[in-house]
Model the fold of this input.
Amino acid sequence: MIIPINPYANQDLTVMLSGQKCQITIKQKSTGVFIDVTANNVLMIQGQICIDRVPVLFSDYRGFIGTLQFEDTQGKEAPICTGFGTRWQLAYYA
Done:
């Protein structure tokens, strides 16, 4: 599943993933893109740097169901906010 994101430096999303109500915060900083994820009001990960095809959350981490990662559709570079939703997609695998 591709989670819709916009080409903005900072954004908050709420999405249902395998029955989990997830709050996702994405922040572009000078050192990269970072992500916070809360599932069912439990903080799963905070301040995790995002790298192409490297899961920011693994299946069963702290009870999280599935895997969440950024994917570069045109290469293998780390995400940049200006390409969110087109070049860089946020993917969820159950």
The mean pLDDT is 95.
